Amino acid sequence: MSNLERQTAVERTGDGTYRGEIVEDWRMWVPVGGYLTSIALRAAQAHASSTTTQPVSVSCHYLNEARVGPADLEVTTLRSTDRASSFLVRMTQDGRDILAALVAAAPAVDVGPKLNWQEAPAAPAPEDSEATILDDDVLALMGEEPFWKNLEFRMIKGLMGSHNYPGIDHLTQEELKFTPRRDAHIRGWQRMACGEGQKDPWVDACRSIIITAAMQFATVADPFTPPLQFIAPTMSLTVDFHTFHPEAQWLLADAVGSYAGDGILGAETRLWTRDGDFIATANSKMTYHDFAEPKTSERLGKSWFQLTEE
């Protein structure tokens, strides 16, 4: 059993109820949303009536911050047929809602067309790309968090190099806060050694969730750094699974910002194998909180989700 399989596993505690253990390894200030969603996905797997079912999509709303330790999950079957199933998963800790997720699943059947309409972008091989070192301000803020030990990055676009857009030299520091200095676009290879080699598509889907979820905030923050001016807790995340390749080590992720406005930021990430097979698509919405706001600086050390309460 791989670390990822073990760290997302759940045990049945009753009729439609399960318990998982949120571990320290996936903390970035607090346990990250992609990891929590993965535990919810595994609860849906445990609840599915067929062992041949595989995940199709998961859509998750994050309600409160989680803590390291046990979490309770309640799974309701909304619909189940020979060709499709839908589950509602609710995660709580000590009676407090952590997240709610809708999971779609279907059996793996060899019928219909098989086409890859989304071609992978051009990219050098991972062994020909240098390991990425985060900007100093990002490292100072997040570099010691245990989450980063699970992933290896080899970025091709974004997270490094010049931030200089033409025609911004005359802008004040306040104006630069909201002026992008490069595109909201990150592309590169990612590897999660603890999630490789699993034949179970549900575990492989967890790897896709965590990798794509981790790209979302980085994509919308990158145009405005250094230094990092804001934080953006994730409100919702949707991941669609196209196919599964647990044998693949390096996965090519391409993430773009979609829109920013009215205090909300959006991003989309797509994931391919090095052979160009399309793995997953993720979309998320995040809320903007400026470090200059007293509420943001005061609450960062207390609760990530308190930022969304006022």
TrEMBL record:
Domain Acyl-CoA thioesterase-like C-terminal: 167-282
Residue span(s) of domain Acyl-CoA thioesterase-like N-terminal HotDog: 24-103
Pfam families, alphabetized: 4HBT_3, 4HBT_3C
InterPro entries (alphabetical): ACOT8-like_C, Acyl-CoA_hotdog, HotDog_dom_sf, Sec_Metab_Biosynth-Assoc, TesB_ACOT8-like_N
Domain of life: Bacteria
Coiled coil: none
The protein's name: Thioesterase family protein
Species: Nonomuraea mangrovi
